[in-house]
Design a protein that fits this description.
By secondary structure, the chain is of the alpha/beta class. It has a domain of 138 residues: 3-Layer(aba) Sandwich (Rossmann fold). It is 23% helix and 20% strand. The chain is built from four helices and six strands; from the N terminus they run E-E-E-H-E-H-E-H-E-H. The chain has a six-stranded mixed sheet with strand order 1-2-4-3-5-6, with helices on one face. Helix 3 links the parallel strand 5 and strand 6. Helix 2 crosses helix 3. It is globular.
Length: 198
């Protein structure tokens, strides 16, 4: 699946179930946006891409989906390019067997989409789980990031699938700290020393 181009937008009508995805469609009155799909390395990812201008990547929390951002997209699409994803297992995206649904896995898939769309000067917005997912994408690609908007969230040093969280993971690893410093420098910000918890 990896490397395929995102699909052309489609609007209205039911979403076809393929055995791995949902069999519903949101109301066009409540959510009047064109659906797009990206075939990631892990499964078919649903997203919307509405508006023109500086791009904002909207990363939702758990157990929500991109529907959370509908009013914000309506408000901003005249000035910004609003890209809101459904992580795998959420909203209209696939529910692939064997996928662990961890923030680290979601960050990897969202990062694939960012690269596929060749997003630059990107503003990353994250709420709840969207914080660690969006920040992981941002620190992995600091050269693509123009800004951050975070609300009601936290940041974990995300480990690859299967490694789990361990004591002290709320503190960034040296590699992540370096990527974060690069991102902060690009944004014209400076880092402050983090307290250590033992």
């Amino acid at each position: 699946m990896k490397g395929r181009q995102p699909t052309e937008p489609s609007r209205g009508g039911p979403i076809e179930a393929d055995g791995n995805g949902p069999d519903f469609a949101p109301s066009a009155q409540l959510y009047p946006f064109d659906s797009r799909w990206f075939d990631s390395s892990a499964g078919r990812l649903h997203y919307v891409d509405e508006g023109r201008g500086a791009a904002i990547l909207m990363c939702h929390g758990n157990p929500t989906w991109r529907f959370l951002y509908r009013q914000l997209i309506r408000t901003l699409q005249g000035t910004f390019r609003c890209i809101a994803v459904d992580y795998l297992g959420f909203g209209l995206s696939d529910r692939p067997p064997g996928y662990g649904y961890t923030p680290a896995e979601h960050a990897g898939v969202v990062g694939e989409l960012v690269r596929e769309l060749d997003l630059k000067e990107l503003i990353v917005m994250g709420h709840d789980w969207g914080g660690p997912i969006g920040l992981s994408v941002a620190t992995a690609h600091p050269e693509r990031i123009a800004g951050l908007v975070l609300g009601n969230t936290w940041f974990l040093a995300l480990r690859p699938p299967g490694q789990g969280l361990q004591h002290g993971d709320v503190h960034r690893t040296d590699a992540a700290r370096g990527r974060a410093a690069s991102l902060l420098q690009r944004l014209g910000l400076r880092s402050r020393q983090e307290p250590r918890v033992t």
